[in-house]
Structure formats: structure tokens, C-alpha cells
Amino acid sequence: FLYNFIYVLRKNQKIQLETARAKSKSDFLDKMSHDIRTPLNAIVGMHELALQSIDDRETVRDCLIKAKTSGEYLVSVINDVLDMSRIESGRMLLAHQQFSLNELLENVLQIESPLAEENGLSLTLKTEPPIETDFVGDGQRLRQCVMNLVNNAVKFTPAGGHVIVSCAASPAGESRAAVCISVKDDGVGMSEEFMLKLFKPFEQERSSLVSSTVGSGLGLSIVHEFVAMMGGTVTAESREGQGSTLTIELSLET
């Protein structure tokens, strides 16, 4: 009897696991097909309109700008999917190279500043004390993580708001330093319920408090995985209507 009971239990668990995997795969395909079709349709539509208005310089220019924006979003979605695929398959390898943390942070702000200005936001960088030492690690992936946090803060903060990127480093043993990078905003914030699934794939898109804000929903999940691969942690503090603070903590080789 006990043997039969265990056999049936394991069989049921296997069926439940396979069902969950099938549903997860189906959800993934539905989400990705929507996220890829939407900007792709916009690109095709804008080019069609531009061709029909070839003599109207302003209309053509407006169409090309919108097509470019849709194209950039499409590339970001595909890159997120590829990164997540590499992470889950164990094929993602981190670099071990020297990089300047100051240059990394300044580069992020240079890239995100136009969007912040367009949205009427203040975007500032604070490094206390000034960080002069270069570090060894995967600067490209760390920049991707910080850029993702800053981009989210900018997207979910209304006009007149503030986004502050702070960074501090302190000695943590021989040839190592404890690095803390935080991104703080006074935007829409997040509910306690949503905070519990903040770093799960696709949850941001489904639970967004701003319906007009688009995203693959993979960004924060990728940040969580990259930071974990670097041996660090990423945490979040937030309250609805009072903004959010996301913090990356790492131990880096100097």
C-alpha cells in the first residue's frame, strides 16, 4: 500500500510539474509574441505612412522618429530574452576586466539624461566619498544593471520628480572593496504585494501601476540574476505614492 501511495504521489507531482512547465512556456510565448509584434507593427505602419507622405518632410520625420523608438524597444526586448535564456541555460559567463566605476556611472547618466529631461525630471549622481580606484569584474553587465534601475526610476516618476543615483565604496579586506549603488526616486512606488514578486520574470509588466509604461518585464529579473552571479545582492524599498529605492551591494576586486 505504501509503495503504491508513494508511486501515485510521485506521478501526480510529475504531472503537476509538467503542467506548470507547459503553462509557463505558453505564458512566455504569449508575452513575447505580443511584445515583439507590437513594436514591429508600429515600425511597419510608420514606414508605410512615411512612403505615402514622401513629399511631406515633417510627417516623414515624425514617422521615422517613432519607427526608431519602436525599433530600439524591439531590440531591448530581444536582448532581454537572449540574456535570460543564457542565464537559465548556464551559458552566461561574466568578464574579469579592469573598469572605472566613475566612468560607468557617468556613462549611465549620459544615456538616461535625455529621457529624464524629456519627462521633466531631475537626474543626479552622488558619490561619497569620491571613488578613484578602478575595479576588476564585468563592468558591462554592472552598467546594464544600473542602467536598468535608472531607466525604471525615470519611467515611473512623474514630471517634476527626482531620481538620485548614489554610490559609495569602502575597504573590505585586502585588494577588495564593498561597493553600494542605489537608485532612489519619488515616483509612483510599489505595493507590498508586488514587492514580493518584484524580481520574477514578466511580473513588472503584468503588475505595472502605470498602464502606459511598456517593458518586457524581464529587466529586474535579469538584474537580480547578474548581481547574484557577481556574488552580490539587490534589494528594494518602496511605498505606493512615495517612491522607491533599489540598492545593489557588491564586493569587488580593486
Concise structural overview:
With 254 residues, this protein is an alpha+beta fold. The protein contains seven helices and seven strands, in the order ααβαββαββαααββ. Mean pLDDT is 83; it is low at 204-213.
What does this protein structure show overall?
With 254 residues, the chain is α+β, with helices and mostly antiparallel strands. The protein has helices spanning 2-52, 57-89, 101-118, 139-155, 192-195, 203-206, 219-229; strands at residues 97-99, 122-127, 135-137, 162-171, 176-185, 233-238, 244-253. It has a five-stranded mixed beta sheet. It has a two-stranded antiparallel sheet with strand order 1-3. A hairpin with a 4-residue loop joins β4 and β5 (176-185). The termini are far apart. The relative contact order is 0.12.
State the low-pLDDT regions, or none: 204-213
Number of helices: 7
Structural class: alpha+beta
Major sheet attributes: 5 strands, mixed
Describe how the helices and strands are arranged.
Blueprint: H1 2-52, H2 57-89, E1 97-99, H3 101-118, E2 122-127, E3 135-137, H4 139-155, E4 162-171, E5 176-185, H5 192-195, H6 203-206, H7 219-229, E6 233-238, E7 244-253
Parallel strand pairs: 2-4
Antiparallel strand pairs: 1-3, 4-5, 5-7, 6-7
Helix pairs in contact: 1-2, 2-7, 3-4, 4-7
